[in-house]
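In this supplementary section we document a worked example of the pipeline. Step one takes a protein sequence of length 383 as its only input; no multiple sequence alignment statistics are reported here. Step two produces a three-dimensional model, which step three serialises into structure tokens for compact storage. The input and output of this example are shown verbatim.
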Amino acid sequence: MKKIVLLGASGSIGTQTLNVVAQHSDLVECLAISVGTNIPWLKEMLHKTPFKLVCVQHEADAVSLRNQFNHIRFVSGDAGLLELATLPQADLLVNALVGFVGLVPTFAAIKAHKDIALANKETLVVAGELIMAECKKNNVKLYPIDSEHSAIFQCLQGNDRKFIKRLIITASGGSFRDRTREELVEVTVKEALSHPNWSMGAKITIDSATMVNKGFEVIEAHWLFDLPYEKIDVILHKESVIHSMVEYVDSSVIAQMASPDMRLPIQYALLYPDRYAINGAVSLDFTQLSELHFTEVSTTRFPLLKLVIQAGITGGTMPAVVNAANEVAVAAFLKGKIRFLDIETVLQKTVDRSIIRPIISVNDCLEADTSARNIAADIIQGG
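The serialised model returned by step three reads:
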């Protein structure tokens, strides 16, 4: 029986993780979960599944919940997340948090010798070098949950990585893949959140539309698979049937294909190396796949893809700066404070105004994050 802790339980990845756990209750048990502020969802879940330990964002919510569920222990805030991440009884931490907040708990879990199933891409984006070094030091395994990185991970099974020619990360193109830049000037939040293929949270759906998400995935792939950036390509594939590919030195290409369903990479990360049926999963019908489309990604059309990849190449605190600016800008867009294309302006200006420094410790990432958030907020306010 594998015992896990789940951070970000009420989000898209979190709820699908709980679905996988419920299907395989004889193989995996979820001991503890974190939920930010979605207390109604949490109460409903606790009536069905009495977890041993639960973390919420605010202590006031924890106090109220203790009165209603006195058989469950409730903690709160950053300290609560760290307690969950280092829970002695757990074997594996599933990090499905959204944003920079996922970094410190991941780092703490690795130091506590917990294996990691990672959906929180920001962890590797802002501190990939530190995270991978700590994994090696503590003999910790890191399993990717992102569909693209899970696909690459699957395509690498049974092959020596020295024979890799390149990784090919596929991109759907997001909500506005068929629109020109001129058509993006007045797009609405509702339009931006209408992803054609995947059901995801709001933040990642916007990141998909700007292609920031894909740039982050290139940085993640660089650290996960220890390959230089020049060996990692991105290609548009609007059907989202091929989730990524690996080309080997003999020009053979191995692709991982499946209907869009995040439970597949989640389950593979939780139960690797075994495979099991997934209730409700839709098999590919190759007789209906008359065409698969692949096109080159235009960095003129998607300038933030180029900016994010360059941040990864530059290294130091630059990825943390870009990530922080993006989190602030996307939040502002979702609240209607800026327009869609203003996200690009906020990121570029934040980078231009930031001092990029080497990363020696997690504190360097924290300081760069705080500074960049302040700069981005000032830009949004017209500064």
